[in-house]
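Run Gram-positive cocci surface proteins LPxTG domain-containing protein through structure prediction, thanks.
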Amino acid sequence: MSSRRTAVVAGSLVAASFSAVLILSGTAGAEDEGPASSKGGKVVDEAPAGVKLTTRLPEKISVDNDSERTALTATVKNEGNQDSGKIQLLVVGFDGLVVKNVQGCSALAENNLPEGSNSGFSCPIDNLAAGRSKSYAVDATFDLGKTGKICLPVQTSDGKKTFWQQGPVPFGTSNPSPDAPATPLLLGTDNEPAGPGGKELPKTGPARDLLPLGAAGASLLAAGAAGMWWSQRRRPGGQEG
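Sure, done. The structure for Gram-positive cocci surface proteins LPxTG domain-containing protein is below.
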């Protein structure tokens, strides 16, 4: 093989390798959740002395435009100086966001779902030591033609008290990218669906979808503070889980 031909082949291999690196880097970046945030969270019922429970959600998720699948990490933390004792974290989906699985947790029966939600999982925790946190891998789907919200209540093991509740808080974008492999969504941003050519799609779901996050969140929090949120999640005829 001549030296000129060898140089051409070597140059082609280098270019191909560089392209592969760019493709892999782009894929990894699309799955980067970024920093976690407690945005949309609020104390509901008073926790035991020395216990301070909070949750975190990623500030960014990525939704596959073909399968509508996405993944995120839900974290609960005890920021106090005393152990929590037995508690449970719920991961609940609303509107276009449907929770499909939470690693190590159990799906809520349909008659045990909070009012207005479409899916939910319960994650029992025997004890969360002071200063410690526990994270859960969440698999979900997100219908990009709708708005979508998620809610993370932290409760006593029997569900009678809610110490902390993050959400329902939306994930969304005001700049849809239907032609890209995936659409990045930001925490705390209402989704603005758009079809080809940027034409906005009709709003979907009941009228509550159109409520500002503050109104929807305040409504759910108020119910929790009154001790009604968890009891009213069951439909008539539902049995205690």
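The radius of gyration is 22 Å.
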